Amino acid sequence: MILKFNSDLTKQEIYANGDDLSRALAFDKDGRGRRVYSWPKEKKKLVVTFKNPLLVTDSYKISQLNPTLRDTVFALFSYPLKITEYENTSLEFEQQNYPGVWGPSIDTLLFCKALKKLNSNNFKTAIEMGCGSGFISKYLINNSKIKRMDLADLNKYAIKCAKNNIKNKKAKFHVGDALKFLKNKKYDLILCNPPYIPRPKSIDDNPYEGIYLLNYLITKAKNNLTKNGVIITNISSLCEHLVKPLAKENNVKITILESLEVPLKVYNVLNNPAWMKYLLKRGLKKQLKQGYEYWQKINIVKIHKTKSI
Ligand SMILES: C[S@@+](CC[C@H](N)C(=O)[O-])C[C@H]1O[C@@H](n2cnc3c(N)ncnc32)[C@H](O)[C@@H]1O
């Protein structure tokens, strides 16, 4: 399937493509009536369009479709290959090939939308810390005059996915802790869509939760910027209470580039009552609307040194 988003993220189109066409959409014969099981990936057919997507996989919106269409779309989501497209950038993702990797999600796309607000021609060197699938880096390479793009992630499968999707010599791939990699280096642009869900009694007990990366970005990463360098990151309402005081103490200015209120859809958090209780007292909103009960606001922000900008 192809999940295609328009530039301002007001429209999501879902296409069946390649083998989906014969297994789900009844395109199972060629022009001469012969059975066809396999079509090229490029061959596609629009199945449904959603307005104002708040999630990449919105099971509630899908469940509102008529039954045949609903089940067809659920079937498409159950097939392994998902291709995400945003403007000139496309990425192939199969979760089973990349265990534990965060595929392109609505915050990934909002992040790319925010990058359009920068004059990216000013930036020659960039790093993406915690690159996941690599979508954001690929988008930046396609839409800037970047000469070198470093991608770092703890998860070796994230780097495998990014490598398989980015065939460009400007991209250099690194498995491991991005903070260690960053040591003694400077960049024009530091990108990071980090983990942002704080956990009770801990803000950085493991690198997949908490605000370990965000903490560094706010308190120390300005030392890793070149003169007019910029940090772009994502600060969710779920961790604002921790981030705002850090920013104040460290004299950093945060400017919001893009914001979106989205449902919280991380099941191991939603199904953990103690964790939910903790978040509800902080930036998580409980309100039943559009098929979802718990909401957070994601903010894609630019971090600068107060004095320099
Ligand atoms: C929320 S996902 C975002 C992935 C991708 N940037 C995107 O927007 O689609 C956060 C990523 O950060 C990685 N990560 C977390 N802590 C890290 C660290 N200290 N060093 C490198 N990667 C880290 C995780 O493995 C994960 O891939």
Unreliable sequence segments: none
How many helices? The count is 11
Secondary-structure arrangement, i.e. CATH architecture of the largest domain: 3-Layer(aba) Sandwich
Tell how many strands the DSSP assignment holds: 13
Helix and strand sequence: EEHEHHEEHEHEHEHEHEHEHHEE
What is the number of independent domains? 2
Alpha-carbon distance between the two ends: 43 Å
Write the layout of secondary structure elements.
Layout (H helix, E strand, L loop, with lengths): L1 E4 L5 E7 L2 H4 L20 E8 L7 H5 L3 H12 L3 E5 L2 E5 L12 H10 L9 E5 L5 H8 L5 E6 L2 H10 L5 E5 L2 H5 L4 E6 L19 H8 L5 E12 L3 H10 L2 E12 L3 H4 L2 H8 L4 E5 L2 E14 L4
Parallel strand pairs: 1-4, 6-7, 6-9, 7-8, 9-10
Antiparallel strand pairs: 1-2, 2-3, 4-5, 10-13, 11-13, 12-13
The structure holds S-adenosylmethionine.
Q: Your description of this structure?
A:
It is a single chain. With 309 residues, this protein is α/β, with parallel strands linked by helices. It contains 11 helices and 13 strands. The protein folds into 2 domains: 2-79, no CATH class; 100-305, Rossmann fold (3-Layer(aba) Sandwich). Helices cover 27% and strands 30% of the residues. The strands form 2 sheets. Strands 6, 7, 8, 9, 10, 11, 12 and 13 form an 8-stranded mixed beta sheet that branches. The chain binds S-adenosylmethionine (SAM).
Describe the structure in brief:
The protein has 309 residues and is α/β, with parallel strands linked by helices. It has helices spanning 20-23, 59-63, 67-78, 106-115, 135-142, 156-165, 178-182, 212-219, 240-249, 267-270, 273-280; strands spanning 2-5, 11-17, 44-51, 82-86, 89-93, 125-129, 148-153, 171-175, 187-192, 225-236, 252-263, 285-289, 292-305. S-adenosylmethionine (SAM) binds at residues 102, 104-105, 108, 111, 129-133, 135-136, 152-155, 158, 177-179, 193-195, 207, 213.
